[in-house]
Amino acid sequence: MTSETEENTRSGRDEEAVSRFVERFASEMTEAGMQRMASRVFAALLADDDGSMTSAELAVALQISPAAVSGAVSYLTQVSMVGRERDPGSRRDRYRLIDEVWFSTFASRDRVLTRWENTLKEGVRILGEDTPAGARIAETVAFFEFLQAELVGMMGRWHEHRKTLDLPNRPV
To answer: How many CB atoms lie within 10 A of CB 73?
Structure first.
């Protein structure tokens, strides 16, 4: 077994600083509404060079129980931020960030907005556009329609912009 100093020298990283970054970013995501353990697991995967770790590796890195890893991964797979795969020749699962995780996450939000829009349109019909509540809901529908139209254009522009980035080891 290697010492922490040897591991830091070999990887070229200050693992303590990496851990602080993971916890800070996880805290930011938690403050934005994501579950705490899911935030920590996601941040750990994001900071991992190949974006994948086993449950045991996550438990050690984050000093949490395997049950906490399981619950966090369950949530992250449900929201399409993390995928599960099997290590070749092993019975252990490996959890991997979804390719283009942020693009995928925002694209799935687009589907949520569509469902909300449809429900809100029904609310406008039920309440009537001429009522204060109906007018407020109609404005919400208009906002979501605007947001979705902008999001579609923005996602296309992102793909074009991404091609121009000179990022090392960037997946294509």
So the answer is: 23
